[in-house]
Amino acid sequence: METLLNYLRDTGFAQFHWSNGVMLAIGGLFIYLAIAKKFEPLLLVPIGFGILIGNIPYDASKLSLGTYDGPVSEHEIEYVQAGVRGFVTDDGVLIGEELEQELQILHGRPIALDDFNASVQEVLVVDPTPLFNPAEGPAAYYRGEAWMLNTHDLLTGPPVGDLGARIVDLGQGRKILVSHQTRRKGDKYPQLWTPEQQDVHNASVFWWLFAGVGLAGFYPPLIFLGVGALTDFGPMLSRPKTLLLGAAAQFGIFAALIGAVASGMFDLREAASIGIIGGADGPTAIFTCAQLAPHLLGAVALAAYSYMAMVPIIQPPIMKLLTTKDERLIRMSEAKPVSKRVKVFFPIVCFLITAFIAPGGLPLLGMLFFGNLLRECLVTDRLSKTAQTTFIDIVTILLGVTVGAKTSAASFLTVQTILIFVLGIVAFAIATGTGVLAAKLMNKLSPGDPVNPLIGAAGVSAVPMAARVVHTVGQKEDPQNYLLMHAMGPNVAGVIGSAVAAGVLLSKLGG
Asked: Which residue in 40, 124, 192, 249 has its CB near the most CB atoms, within 10 A?
């Protein structure tokens, strides 16, 4: 019976929390919208299932390697207990925000680290049940009652292993393994993941998969390679002024950035990560957030992809609100053909210009224009077809699943996340509106070659969804008005614009 009970304690049922249930429901909703409503199924099915993966409750009391980024001291002592770590520095000050949180849990009330007697360097140790045999690893973790221990004892116990760890006898048959070696920035240390810090990326092969959306962040540039191979810049090149519509739509990014800073809940780097949602470009949002505010990655990525999928719902009311019926009935002149030579030179020249302007966006811009060159040069058909099909499909699967799995309940169900979604939709709405208004202004300044203001809404970089929505709204007013190819001009310009905007933010804030 005891064996059975121990097994049940290790199952997800025993560790289930209501927050896990909420996130599982959200994951199910994404899958439902993708299958039943056809909302971007290639994105929402992987993301929805990833949410399910990331929110199965499990005992996360497993060792992983973290990186020490605390103050450098010649005689720092590291204490790892109950999933938290604290340090005693040369002046006897115990530090570590996580340790304060653990003290509050153990004592049932807030306890500041200053409450401890720094003069005798007493520290918290937790006893008595080891989560694994100390002989099997460089450190041991304990749950149970708290004990106070003078740090002098740390230097007298017998050494264990090769990491400077020592066993300390607490009396009454209780022993604990602690480490007291010097730590410097960048050193690896054993770290415990608690259920509250549950992160599925630490599990087996997921550690490697998550590198694509973490600080390595190589999935978004690879997605851009496929996007470049799929994109025909001809509509934009045949009517270059539509490039301005793609640029105008980027105002949503900076409006949301300002709003996030004004809220007082986010710093400038976090605000920049949130603002990029306004570009309606999921890979760009992930790439930017992974470098500026990785702790917000799950919420930012989910918001970006959610609004990309809801383009047919969000954009039409804004488009109709800002245009008159006569404006929606405007028929645009046929675009001029673009020579093959121009199409070949464009990705090379545009890459050099944009990369010098915003070097922070080099990975995105480089892969976007490289993919487009593969498409247009006509001598790399095999590479172009691979990038357009199998390659981008594989990366989309990995990106969607890992992004979904980043939305664990503990980090996702917060007030900050709600505000991120609110700011995200505001950014998206402003981006749509500024694109439409820029098209109307363009007609005032150049009445001889009018553009249908609806195509300004395609300035967001949700390719080709936004262009299709523009075409659909236009045909409801005039079934013979074909706006799809006209809308593709600002649509592909928006892809460039969002990458440049991300590059500007990364160049300024990424250091």
From this structure: 249
